[in-house]
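In this supplementary section we document a worked example of the pipeline. Step one takes a protein sequence of length 174 as its only input; no multiple sequence alignment statistics are reported here. Step two produces a three-dimensional model, which step three serialises into structure tokens for compact storage. The input and output of this example are shown verbatim.
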Amino acid sequence: MLRPLLAAAVLVLSAAPATAEVVARTADSFTLRYAAGAEVAPEDIGPSLTDLPKWWDSAHTYSGSAANLSLDLTPGGCWCEKLADGTDFDHGRTVSIAPDGFVFNAPFGPLRGKTTKAELTVTWPGANRGWTPTWTMVVEGPGTGAMADGVDAVMGAGYQRWLHYLESAEAPSV
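The serialised model returned by step three reads:
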């Protein structure tokens, strides 16, 4: 009985915990960072990101359905949402793609029109037994610092849902 408990404790202690935080904030800017160690294949990261309908929370869409989201991972590609009237709402754009990361111009939802910079960088540095999928979001613009906690809540939940999907290939249940 002690061996299974000891093995479980080792597994829990060896798993890299997810970190999610507002790493910097001023009246006119904030930086968010989300990271967790994961045993994933780097080649799965891009395809999992583009599968937004499987992991994004429908409650955080204008249309009410994550099925209306799409992400084009080519430079200039749209992170878009199809609205009921047939138009595409442009949440963000792919800025660059590298072997170890993606950069998006990402003035999602309420940030649109309020920022001079809204950049989401997705990277996956190597870790002990896998990789550390990481999102870093830098937002700048007059008065945007006051929005940090709200944006952190939505992006942090999005990161957790994406990480679950990336690791399990299953849509989050909630």
